[in-house]
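Figure 3 (text version): structure tokens given as input.
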């Protein structure tokens, strides 16, 4: 797969990005989805999108466990805006001029 430069960063990423939103309980189950991640890496996809809100953080844990040794080879795009819990660390980004604490 021929990679592209991501914006002005100089970082080389695959033109396809593996979306991890359905990894974990939001989908049919972790077992059916985990094998796709290593196959995507084998196919040359090095760009993975996830977020802490996806299955309350389980998506990010699955991505981490499914790619041992690939830390230097993968570009991980994650989001943190949406709240998914009551704790300050799970309440998303702070609104402009305010606090994220509830």
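Below: residues designed for each position.
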């Amino acid at each position: 797969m021929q990679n592209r430069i991501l914006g002005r960063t100089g970082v080389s990423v695959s033109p396809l990005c593996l979306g991890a939103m359905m990894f974990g309980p939001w989908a049919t189950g972790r077992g059916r989805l985990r094998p796709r991640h290593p196959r995507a890496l084998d196919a040359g996809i090095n760009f993975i999108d996830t977020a802490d809100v996806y299955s309350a953080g389980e998506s990010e844990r699955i991505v981490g466990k499914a790619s041992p040794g690939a830390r230097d080879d993968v570009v991980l795009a994650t989001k943190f805006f949406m709240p998914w819990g009551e704790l300050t660390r799970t309440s998303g980004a702070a609104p402009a001029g305010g606090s994220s604490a509830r």
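Residues 30-35, 96-102 have pLDDT under 50 and may be disordered.
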